[in-house]
Amino acid sequence: MDTDILLFAAIGFLAQMVDGALGMAFGVICSSSLLAFGLPPALASASVHAAEVVTTGISGASHLYNRNVDRTLFLKLVATGVVGGVVGAYILTGLPETAVKAFVAVYLVGMALLILDRVRGRVRKGFRPPPQLVGAGGGFLDAVGGGGWGPLVASSLIATGGEPRRSIGSVNLAEFFVTAAISVTFLFHLDLAQYGRIVLGLVIGGALAAPLAGYLIRIMPQRLALGLVAAVVASQAALSVYGLFTA
Fold first, then answer.
1. Between 117 and 18, the higher pLDDT residue
2. Does 123 have pLDDT greater than 60?
3. What is the pLDDT of residue 69?
4. What whole-number distance in Å separates Cα of residue 73 and Cα of residue 175?
5. What is the spatial distance between Cα 242 and Cα 3, in angstroms, rounded to a whole number?
6. Whole-angstrom Cα distance, residue 68 to residue 28?
7. 175 CB burial (10 A radius; 0-12, 13-18, 19+)
8. DSSP track, 6-64
9. CA 100 to CA 89: how far, in whole Å?
10. Residue 42's domain spans which residues?
């Protein structure tokens, strides 16, 4: 196997371990890595979502097997998440990138603070956006930014009182359908044939990690899961803010 495929497989493995266990970060980790290699944003997002069709399917099946999925929550998320993802993929090239990045940065900072409150044992029950609205926003921003479904959707649910295990499992299963819809939309606008090696590497690494991640969140203590989610969201918020000032 070529060394570049092994490199992309390593990126996919790391990203999927984080995403499958904590409900976020596959798209963000992979997209930022591909952008660092010089891939244009639209093609980076399309390549990541093509790989995610496989990795999210395996991850979602793992969460189902480990009984981490709230079926009612899943249905609410997937119904609007697919619509938001298709719209985001369709109009990606015409959106004001700076405005989207600013919104995501502010949102993630707020979610990180709310999750940290939960780690300390406090839940803000008065603030609970409908899952359908969270799903639509998450799908849209996931397509636009090459990642973002987990950070926005999982962090929103967990920050506002959702059980980490059920929230993460439901978000991961719904992500398969959202990702598939986004990928199909991209196929009508972009030629991904020349990026097959990138997709293959991400798929190999992600597929190896996905079954392990579902089991990990099943046995992980809730307070530890909350702390790790807060750390991931805070780091992504910090990167988003940094990107605004260096753009």
1. 18
2. no
3. 92
4. 13
5. 31
6. 23
7. buried
8. HHHHHHHHHHHHHHHHHS--HHHHHHHHHHHTT--HHHHHHHHHHHHHHHHHHHHHHHH
9. 14
10. 3-246
Q: Which tokens sit at 219? A: 């046995």
pLDDT per residue over 142-158, tens digit each? Answer: 787 666 687 778 878 88
Average pLDDT, the chain: 77
Q: What is the DSSP string of 70-101?
A: -HHHHHHHHHHHHHHHHHHHHTGGGS-HHHHH
First-to-last C-alpha distance (Å) of the chain: 37
The tokens for 128 are 């609970």
Number of structural domains the chain divides into = 1
Q: What is the pLDDT of residue 74?
A: 95
What local confidence, expressed as pLDDT, does residue 172 receive? Answer: 87
Three-class SS state of 197: helix
pLDDT, tens only, 94-119: 666 666 667 666 766 666 666 566 55
Q: Which helix (H) or strand (E) holds 232?
A: helix 222-246
- Angle at alpha carbon of residue 212, lines to 70 and 136, rounded to 5°: 40
152 Cβ contact partners less than 8 Å away, ≥ 6 residues apart: 104, 107, 108, 111, 134, 137, 138, 141, 142
- Kindly report the backbone phi and psi dihedral angles of residue 232, in degrees, each rounded to the nearest multiple of 5, phi listed first: -65, -45
Which of 37-46, 47-56, 160-169, 234-243 bottoms out in mean pLDDT, i.e. has the lowest?
234-243
Q: How far is CA 2 from the centre of its chain?
A: 28
Would you say residue 193 has pLDDT above 70?
Answer: no
Q: Helix, strand or coil for residue 208? A: helix
Tokens of 245: 């000032």
